[in-house]
Design brief:
alpha/beta; 5-stranded parallel beta sheet; 15 helices; 9 strands; about 45% helix; disordered N terminus
Length: about 350
């Protein structure tokens, strides 16, 4: 099944790219990362060297790709992007690396999914700026070493724990992106609505921010969906979108005031009804919902845990009292359900 963004009808669009900040000064949120990155960039420019290799980790939609593009822009370097699953063989990666120019920035998304043989090729490229390419077949096979120009690799991952230690240790700079504060989300969508010429009330921005799951990408998509519903109701581009209109749109999208989608509620209801509130592992829940395990693990569970509706325990996932209250049902009577 598709990830959360599809369940929210939040597929990536060209519009998302239109509002990406191009400079570090325009990047909202992640203040500690931005501050440190400013220092690293300034030092690299003074030395006239490329930035050290950077690892960006964190949940989807928090700005890893945007930061990678900003790094290239700030360094005046060419930006190249590839997704790790698209690298099937070492030769695919060798072709990309051999095409890099001096001080280029190469961004590898989902780097934890890089094939082992391609990852081994990357070790030499990152550490010694060399790659060994096999030429010929069988007994006539030979290895040719290619020297690469100085470059910066930016790797992005939603699962830093899946990275091998040798690869992780070759990144000189490592940042973990956190979820955003609500006021930062408001600033992001306010900037976007100005770029998109969307007229709306201040209260409307707050309604969107509350449901954005502290994630800019989701906030931007929700802004456009609310705009769609508002225009469908009244085809007047100059008429401000009210908070009431936004609430009506969210009701039609089955997104409640806490940003919970239909799938979120089904996830919690499955634990409540089938397992008396837990504990239970993710695999049985995935089977009940007919959902991909990775969707639940990467997109659904993290927000529910952070929101305080689900607790991870050594025995499995358990619902909290807040979850039962949100669902409007009575918790089970088991004495150990809410221990701790």
């Amino acid at each position: 099944m598709a990830p959360l963004e599809t369940h929210l009808n939040l597929e990536r669009t060209e519009q998302e790219g239109q509002v990406r900040p191009a400079r570090l000064a325009d990047f909202v949120g992640q203040r500690e990362i931005v501050s440190n990155l400013e220092s690293y960039l300034k030092a690299a420019r003074i030395r006239k060297e490329p930035l050290d290799h950077i690892l960006l980790s964190g949940p989807p939609g928090l700005g890893k790709t945007t930061l990678a593009r900003i790094i290239a822009q700030e360094m005046g370097a060419r930006f190249s992007q590839v997704t790790a699953p698209n690298i099937k063989r070492p030769g695919d990666l060798a072709k990309i690396l051999s095409g890099l120019g001096e001080h280029d920035v190469l961004f590898i998304d989902e780097i934890h999914r890089l094939p082992a043989v391609a990852e081994e090729l990357l070790y030499g490229a990152m550490e010694d700026r060399t790659i060994d390419i096999a030429v010929g077949d069988g007994m006539l096979a030979n290895s040719v070493q290619i020297t690469l120009p100085p470059f910066t690799l930016v790797g992005a991952t939603t699962r830093p724990g899946d990275l091998t230690a040798p690869l992780r240790d070759r990144f000189g700079i490592r940042f973990h992106l956190e979820f955003y504060e609500e006021n930062d989300i408001v600033r992001i969508i306010d900037r976007a609505r100005q770029l998109w010429n969307i007229v709306c009330e201040t209260a409307t921005l707050s309604e969107i921010s509350r449901r954005a799951r502290s994630t800019p990408r989701i906030a931007l998509h929700l802004l456009r969906r609310v705009w769609d519903y508002a225009l469908a109701e009244n085809a007047d581009l100059a008429r401000p979108i009210t908070a009431e209109a936004a609430q009506s749109a969210f009701s039609k999208m089955s997104i409640d005031a806490e940003g919970m989608t239909k799938l979120d509620r089904q996830f919690m209801l499955s634990i409540a009804k089938h397992y008396d509130g837990g504990p239970v592992g993710l695999k049985p829940i995935a089977a009940i919902l007919a959902e991909d395990l990775a969707t639940l693990e990467d997109y659904i569970e993290p927000y529910l845990v952070r929101r305080g509706f689900v607790r991870r325990t050594p025995r499995g996932r358990m619902l909290t009292r807040e979850a039962f209250a949100h669902l409007g049902i009575e918790p089970g009577k088991r004495g150990d359900l809410f221990e701790g």
